[in-house]
Design a protein that fits this description.
Elements lengths: L11 H4 L8 E4 L2 E4 L5 H18 L5 E4 L3 E3 L19 E4 L5 E2 L2 E3 L4 E5 L5 H15 L3 E6 L4 E6 L10 E4 L3 E3 L7 E3 L6
């Protein structure tokens, strides 16, 4: 990969030229390299994805786990010009399958889950939080494996995330988009 140029705004077209073995995200045109996830991270991701998958069967919604690109266009950008690639969020639930193409989803998903680590916490809690809120992602979860906590943000009528509901390992989370569905955190945290 060529050296990144400071001040340059990168796009999805640039992202597609980067090596597959490297994990990158582009937020507001700025690329961020991602570290490899820990086994705990992967175990949490597999369990959450499994619970979502089991409960979404028969619905119009689908769950995807990283590696899976999420491209959120500003206004009417065409795919190659998109500079808000929240590439490879840990878990994404999408309900408009017409926006599935190429390497992932091009639009605003119903729900995003990030499994945070010390190296990703700032982006998860600040940059991505703001981008997801601005884009209109209805539900955003931040999972903190070290503390065995999940913060759930729900988009309010004023198009802002309200105060989070915080859940511990012995709780169940009602999924806002599917009220009859609960995530059992006892089996999520290892």
């Amino acid at each position: 990969m060529p050296l990144l140029q400071e001040g340059r705004k990168y796009t999805y077209a640039d992202y597609l030229t980067w090596p597959d073995e490297e994990r990158w995200e582009i937020i507001d045109g700025v690329p961020y390299m991602q570290a490899a996830p820990t086994w705990q991270h992967q175990a949490i991701s597999v369990e959450l994805t499994s619970q979502f998958n089991a409960n979404l069967k028969g619905s119009s919604c689908r769950v995807f786990a990283a590696p899976f690109d999420l491209c959120i266009p500003d206004n009417e950008e065409n795919d190659e010009k998109i500079s808000n690639i929240i590439s490879q969020p840990d878990i994404v639930v999408v309900c408009d399958q017409s926006k599935l193409r190429k390497t992932g989803y091009f639009g605003v998903p119903a729900l995003v889950i990030e499994i945070s680590s010390p190296s990703t916490a700032r982006n998860d809690k600040l940059l991505k939080f703001n981008k997801f809120e601005q884009a209109g992602v209805k539900e955003y979860w931040i999972v903190e494996p070290d503390y065995k906590l999940v913060s759930v943000f729900i988009l309010q009528e004023n198009k802002r995330y309200g105060r989070p509901e915080v859940y511990a390992e012995d709780h169940k989370i009602k999924v806002a988009m599917i009220p009859e569905f609960e995530i059992d955190l006892n089996s999520v945290f290892v």
